[in-house]
Design a protein that fits this description.
Structural class: alpha/beta
Family: Belongs to the ROK (NagC/XylR) family.
Strand order of the largest sheet: 4-3-2-1-5
Distance between the termini: 92 Å
Number of strands: 21
Number of helices: 28
Pfam family, one: ROK
Oligomer: single chain
Protein name: ROK family protein
CATH architecture of the largest domain: 2-Layer Sandwich
């Protein structure tokens, strides 16, 4: 076989490539591969390189060819099919921390991570994360550390080393880990640290020389951490470092090593476990901190991510540093309110169809059957009120979970096992819950999960839009049983429009068939552009719908339907639908940004829809105008074209810059203006989730809106260090508002409330 030419695999400049030199100076497979390329660059042939490095000629040829074809990236390991030989332990730990307690089994985690469940189980035992509830973790470092609470208090990262400092404290009682870890903030740390490490590895030689001559880099950092935490037992985990920084004898005498500095400052030096990367170890430690300590808010993660991002962006030339403020003197006790301890409260008026025989009446309906149902209670509640409230707590918990055992219900609701058994037995008998097959367990008797019976209740939702009418029949799970949509009539008489609305609703009910909905039919929800007088059910000044101006819509519809009818603003109805259909992923406060004929906002605050004094909260357009300073001559906020999606469209920006494009607004301009309005909402309400939906939130413009709104809500708010605002698409379909209108009926009947709405 002919000898390979020496030029193959020895790209020009390889002998001076700083990345290859650093790889060759280290250990592992990449050191061998970089050495092969560097020796080839010196003119050695494959046989000479194989003899010098003690490898086969085929190995030398392979890596020279890979470098010639792909550069330094060709020397990295390529992904292979099947399960990986080694799994990063940090990814397993992060997977445990960021999933729900019910999903923390080793098999489920292994399936999600694509590895063996045996490896997952071994890792969990090594980190002491074996139960569904997190115990005091045991981080497997060298040398080992005694079991204690560990708080990350400092991070130093530059081209020479990465050091993570932990403070050890006596173990405190374990708070519930459910929902504590902010997965988005943890992802921000992972992304920022990955970029920072890449920046450090690619540091120019001039900066490396400057760092080598700086005797106070990591030493000053360790001294600053000790000054900030003088009473704590500190542990320095060296995630990456030059050998000279760890050698107490062979380094520069003018520059003390990390080991010498830590000994002087009474800081114990540790090495991370072998099967873990620099980034994932740090993320795992910060994730454990967030899961264990209520004091470790999202701000801690976001502050670290910000410090690392500044370094990765090149704004901090030499190093990234983050030092935590002094820890609290004593653990702050966390109390968790229980459904029973909150106290009983009267429920709103029941939503039960008039003139319809309902065998599966709602808990609220059954409670109000006696003479006490009409009594307004202000200072307390009787036992019937308490039972109804707890029933709704159980129904809401089952709805969010999807399927849940009685033991898990008792844990989540903080009700007693006896109360949960009594309530679930009653709801099963009345047809609201269904008992699934028994779930076997290694300890104790098998448990029987329960879930909502989808067909236990139905509601009709009608959405009135200036151009189209939509009606849907929805069951208790949010599934659409029947639907119909048609253009709104051109007849300018209000009676013609109301007749069309009623006729379409009747056709949808007929389409579904009486046997599927009659027994559990709760009512009709109607969503219309605001403002709306919800007390009388009158549409006031709906934009682009002068035909319905001052029309008593509910009164007219009640002449056709013998059941309760609720009139709601379209954006508020869409928010309710998002909450009801979204289940667990929407079980938090959020702002629903509705892009329809105009732009409105639905507000879900403190577990309930916020309607305001007149049920007309969410007039987003005026707020957006005030935020942008767009005031007309009379002093009134302008009607912004940015808040009317019909007034703008996608435009080629290159054409606009050349003066040849259309003059109307681009989606980018509108999204920027709307983002400034959302910024004001976030600053005012302090929520962490914005959901965007509506008929004008189409696929071709979705990424523009999401990008601009996410940038505005995370870059500019006053409290941006405390939260990472998520901006997400609606989980609902194109019939979002109609489904939301029907969901308002379910929401009124089954959502636990402490006070009767006035």
């Amino acid at each position: 076989m002919a000898e390979m030419p020496s030029s193959v695999g020895a790209a020009a400049g390889a002998e001076g490539h700083p990345l290859l030199r650093r790889w060759a100076a280290g250990d592992g497979p990449q050191a061998l591969r970089a050495s092969i390329v560097l020796l080839a660059a010196e003119g050695l042939n494959s046989a000479a390189i194989a003899r010098r490095l003690g490898v086969s000629r085929q190995t030398v040829t392979t890596w020279r060819q890979r470098y010639a074809a792909e550069g330094p990236d060709g020397l990295l390991d390529r992904s292979r099919s099947g399960r990986p030989k080694e799994v990063d332990e940090g990814e397993i730990v992060i997977g445990v921390l960021t999933c729900a307690p019910d999903d923390r089994t080793s098999r489920l985690l292994a399936r999600r991570l694509g590895c063996s469940h045996t490896v997952v189980a071994q890792t969990r035992r090594r980190w002491n994360l074996t139960g569904s509830q997190l115990a005091v973790p045991s981080i497997p470092m060298t040398p080992a550390i005694e079991t204690s609470d560990l708080w990350p208090v400092g991070v130093h990262l530059d081209a020479e080393c990465t050091v993570l400092v932990l403070a050890g404290r006596p173990a405190s009682p374990v708070p519930p880990a459910r929902g504590v870890v902010d997965a988005y903030a943890l992802c921000a740390v992972s992304t920022a640290m990955t970029d920072a490490v890449a920046t450090a590895v690619e540091t120019p030689a001039a900066v490396l020389d400057a760092l080598a001559q700086d005797p106070d880099g990591v030493v000053h950092f360790l001294e600053a951490v000790r000054r900030t935490h003088p009473q704590s037992e500190l542990h320095a985990v060296v995630l990456r470092a030059r050998s000279s920084l760890l050698d107490p004898f062979g380094g520069d005498p003018r520059r003390p090593s990390i080991i010498e500095s830590c000994a002087r400052l009474e800081i114990t030096v540790h090495q991370p476990p072998p099967r873990i990367s620099e980034v994932s170890f740090a993320c795992a430690v910060f994730g454990l901190d967030a899961a264990r300590h209520p004091e470790s808010s999202t701000r801690v993660l976001l502050d670290l991510a910000a410090a690392l991002s500044v370094y990765a962006a090149g704004q901090a030339r030499r190093r990234a540093r983050w030092i935590r403020e002094p820890l609290p003197a004593l653990p702050i006790p966390t109390t968790w309110p229980t459904a029973a301890s909150i106290g009983p409260a009267p429920r709103p008026a029941p939503v039960v169809p008039a003139g319809t025989a309902s065998a599966a009446a709602s808990p609220a309906a059954q409670r109000t059957a006696g003479p006490t149902s009409s009594t307004e209670v202000r200072g307390g509640a009787n036992q019937i009120d308490l039972g109804s409230f707890n029933e709704c707590v159980v129904i809401e918990t089952v709805r969010v979970a999807g399927q849940i055992t009685r033991g898990e219900l008792a844990e989540l609701t903080r009700l007693t096992q006896q109360s949960v058994s009594r309530i679930t037995r009653s709801l099963i008998q009345r047809g609201f819950l269904v008992e699934e097959r028994r779930r076997h367990s290694a300890v104790g008797k098998p448990s029987s999960p329960v879930r909502l019976r989808d067909g236990a209740a139905h509601a009709l939702g009608i959405h009135i839009d200036p151009n189209v009418l939509t009606a849907v029949l929805v069951d208790l799970s949010g599934r659409i049983v029947a639907r119909r949509s048609e253009p709104i009539t051109a007849d300018p008489r209000p009676g013609a429009v109301v007749t069309q609305i009623a006729a379409m609703g009747e056709r949808v009910l007929e389409q579904a068939g009486r046997g599927r909905w009659e027994q559990g039919f709760l009512g009709i929800g109607v969503a219309t552009p605001g403002p709306v007088d919800t007390v009388s059910g009158t549409v006031l000044d709906a934009p682009l719908m002068s035909v319905l101006r001052d029309v008593p819509l509910r009164t007219l519809l009640e002449r056709r339907f013998a059941c309760p009818i609720v009139i709601e603003k379209d954006c508020s109805a869409a928010a309710v639908g998002e909450r009801w259909i979204g289940r667990g992923i929407r079980a938090c406060d959020f702002v629903y940004l509705y892009l329809g004929t105009g732009v409105g906002a639905g507000l879900f605050l403190n577990g309930d829809l916020y309607r305001g004094l007149t049920a007309n909260a969410g007039e987003f357009g005026q707020l957006c105008a005030v935020t942008l300073g767009r005031i007309d001559a009379a002093g009134r906020p302008e009607l912004l074209p940015e808040c009317n999606p019909a007034s703008y469209h996608l435009v080629d920006h290159s054409l606009r810059q050349g003066g040849r494009g259309p003059k109307n607004l681009t989606v980018q301009q509108a999204a920027k203006a709307i983002g400034k309005g959302v910024l004001s909402v976030i600053d005012l309400l302090d929520v962490g989730l914005v959901v965007v939906g509506g008929p004008f939130f189409t696929e071709d413009v979705a990424h523009i809106y999401l990008t601009e709104i996410e940038h505005a809500t995370n870059a500019y708010p006053t409290a941006r260090r405390l939260r990472q605002v998520r901006v997400e698409r609606s989980v609902n379909s194109s019939e979002a508002v109609a489904v939301g209108a029907a969901s308002t009926i379910f929401h009124a009947a089954f959502t636990p409330r402490l006070r009767r709405p006035r």
